[in-house]
Amino acid sequence: MKLNLAIVCGAVLALAIGSAVSQATVSKLQMTALTSPEDAVSARRLLMTTIGNNNDILHDTFDGYFEYSDREVRGRLDAISTMLLTFPHLYRGEPDVWTPEIEATDPARASHSLPLIWEDWDGFYAMATAAAETAFEASMTTDREKQRILIEDLEVQCESCHATYRRELPSVDFDELIGPANP
Q1: Which pLDDT tens digit goes with each residue over 17-76?
Q2: Which residues form the signal peptide (predicted)?
Q3: Which of 145, 149, 150, 154 has the most CB atoms around its CB within 10 Å?
């Protein structure tokens, strides 16, 4: 089991390093995807929503709302790590077009990404990779307290990336939309 764990760790590290090296040697034109800009935005939003849903369940588990299952917690953390490694690769070579009209007419395809991502691609890529590594480290430990600490670290990393590279989102009052949880 420990040998398998070492092999998996080595493979993930090699993939992350190889990906970083290949990013440094590829021209921007070669990095342009064949996916339409709208579909790329939609894919990123779906992936980020899934990361967020997994993160919420992890926090609810550690807050005692769900029964702790080592297998489930580690699986969710591993999935988050994989998604965070994948996320930057869903960006096209040029910044997304965003207007208030796009946000109003087709919000599912409206990009929340700031142009700064393309201006500071290396910084964005490094933040996503670091967060993936934190999630992966948390997925590899069976120490619940260490997992909790790493999940909190991951939350800080995510919030920092969002504060730097994501448009400010309007706040939603869910109580106003659907009523209070405990009437």
Answers
A1: 455 545 555 565 555 567 888 889 999 999 999 999 999 999 999 999 999 999 999 999
A2: 1-24
A3: 154
Give φ, ψ of 113 to 5 degrees: -80, 135
Asked whether 78 and 139 are in contact (CB, 8 A), the reply is: yes
Range(s) of the domain holding residue 45: 36-168
List pLDDT tens digits, range 118-145: 999 999 999 999 999 999 999 999 999 9
Residue 137: CB partners within 8 Å, gap ≥ 6? 150
For residue 1, being part of any structural domain is answered with: no
Contact 53, 123 (CB under 8 A): no
pLDDT score of 34: 75
For residue 166, give the 3-state DSSP assignment: strand
Per the structure, how many domains does the chain have? 1
- Domain of residue 151, CATH code: 1.20.120.10
Are the CB atoms for 44 and 96 separated by under 8 Å? no
Domain assignment of residue 27, yes or no = no
Task: Please indicate, yes or no, if residue 41 is contained in any of the structural domains.
Answer: yes
